[in-house]
Amino acid sequence: MSQATDPATLEQILAAAADAAGTTAAATPAQRAGWLNAAADALDAAADELIALANRETHLPASPRLQGELKRTTFQLRLFGEVLADGEFLGATVDHADAAWPMGPRPDIRRLLTPIGPVLVFAASNFPFAFSVAGGDTASALAAGCPVVLKAHSGHPELSARTGEILRDALVKAGAPEGIFAVVHGQQNGVTALKDPRIQAASFTGSVPGGRALFDIATSRPSPIPFYGELGSVNPVVVTRAAIDARGEAIAKGYAGSFTLGAGQFCTKPGLLFLPEGHGLEDTLREAVAAVPAQPMLNERIAAGFADGLAKLSEVAGVEVLSESGGTEGISHGATLLATTAKAFLADADTVREECFGPASLIVTYADQDELISLLGVMEPGLTATIQGEESDVDWIRPVLPSLTRVAGRLLWNDWPTGVTVTWAQEHGGPYPATTAPTSTSVGTAAIERFLRPIAWQGFPDELLPEPLQENNPWDLPRRTDGKRQ
Ligand code: NAP
């Protein structure tokens, strides 16, 4: 099952996706919502089988983790059904001809977002459901009206194949064209598909080296395509002195819980904690971390990457181990909490600001607001930045905010970054290396925008216009007409 897809099958899959593109794009939003709902129902019905497979291949616990993740995955498919029913995602905009337009007379011009074409999705290893075969990238591309070719992650091949079968069968049974969805296996096949001119966009969740290599391929094709890569993130957390005084113990425990959750294998794991000097939380942190059992990591590649990253971090001058738990055996690792000073951090910023994917995190102490701002100033952008503060901190924190908005796509106040809800307002992105496309999100309903391309229709007779742009608004869409929302 983990064997690479053979070249003839890969060619059939790419040809079928290209053939299906027109029909998929022409389906109405209501039809596509029906396909997504059918897919969600089929995956829910197969939950026991899929969760058992995922547990075997990824070592993630069935309950509550994999159960919760599958629930999130099918919720996500259904939520995109609501996006389709709402219609605002199409961005339908009508400007009637206007002889008195201030810059000179304008023609009738109408703009609509249109499916981009077949999308190649590289599944993630660390969310075998929610960021894998039937995950957010697939859901948003299908909702946008694009066929999907899914490059399975080598960490869970059987689960990928089975999820792909169930998803494809449900979509086709609900009326989608045959080539709407297929899974391919093998690293080289991912590259071959990415270079194929029939693929019009790609998305990815994984490592910086892997994502960067694929981004470079996507953008150096003879016909370059958008590549939505979600790569690495350190996710700094800033704790104020007032928050330490008010609830230091709870913060220490919350932090230890967040960075060790799921063996630290979340792209939103808090990898850096900025504490005020003299915080006095050492003992509580030591105890909280010492109580974390060793947990098996997803696979050997990730366990080896974690061991290397941790060794590199531990060797930095001025970085010390504050607490360790559980030991290491095979692919199982305990938690490690490291600590350093602002001076040591600034002296080797390149190493200490790198993501160490797994159950490790680094505490950095700061003397005052100026020092905190200079520490944040050397951070690379990531997905999130968190503040643990009190109401009395508002004036102290305000000047720090620009340093945080520079480095993150999502800012949190008195919460932990692990746990990414799927909603209309969610943003899961950020400037490079968080992503290769900082204007987009891979989670939440806005993820659909990645797979839509705007087309303006100038001067067309009504009957040749796409229905969403016709004069009598037959789909009853929310539209902007002559500059006014309707
Ligand atoms: P990965 O090694 O980047 O692999 C992700 C996908 O890209 C897989 O399908 C892989 O194919 C493919 N790939 C990787 N390098 C490639 C290359 N040079 N050319 C073509 N295809 C390539 O990521 P991973 O296995 O999930 O995890 C490894 C590391 O990624 C972790 O230790 C962690 O640092 C990071 N990670 C980050 C996130 C995040 O959300 N930020 C999530 C997961 C992992 P094969 O599977 O077939 O090899």
From TrEMBL:
Residues 477-486 have a biased composition (Basic and acidic residues). Signal peptide: none annotated. It is an enzyme of class 1 (oxidoreductase). Its EC number is 1.2.1.4. Residues 463-486 are annotated as: Disordered. It holds the Pfam family Aldedh. Keywords: Oxidoreductase. It comes from the Bacteria. GO terms for molecular function: aldehyde dehydrogenase (NADP+) activity. Residues 4-423 form the Aldehyde dehydrogenase domain. This is NADP-dependent aldehyde dehydrogenase. It comes from Amycolatopsis roodepoortensis.
